[in-house]
């Protein structure tokens, strides 16, 4: 019995596996269209600039426009022609674990999709602590066609408020190292809680909340292991980064 032939949700097509040609590890990133009409790969700073390794290139996946299983690999140099870094960081918040890597490839020629500022959470829509979200990424590399998986998460700190003094919020989810750089999204829904009450949208909406970065560990007893609490940097940092480039 073959698998049912159904369309892949658009948000899944925004996400790419990130591999290192010279290393065994992997990570996650997603595609973003800036207001300057340039296209970027969004991921974590520690993905492109790991502390223990010198990484000169990363490899992403481009998908066929008619068949997402039709894959093409694209290597991206992390070094400019002058030898500097080929990515953009936040101009003020040096702790922000988010970067934007400019892309030379035109994603409109492929089946990949992009997020943009239009996918940010509108000011009037409320996100409360304890509300469910999803994180799309690659906890394991898997096999072709390398479709990302969705992990269920709870928003664990007041959304819009700095967590631990940083421009991020906390999520409660069982995450792994390969998911670094994953987009954090609202659950697709036509019903939204707004400042004026419950609103019904014309269709199911998914909003980009942030960029998953790291899992917190217990500072009280290291043997307790991970807390299943994670840091996600606010999506608005992406525009700050791009506009500073």
From TrEMBL:
Lineage top rank: taxon:
Archaea
Q: Which UniProt keywords apply?
A: Hydrolase, Protease
What does the record list as GO biological process?
proteolysis
Q: Name one Pfam family in it.
A: Trypsin_2
GO terms (molecular function) for this protein are: peptidase activity
Name the record gives this protein = Serine protease
Organism in which the protein naturally occurs = Halobaculum lipolyticum
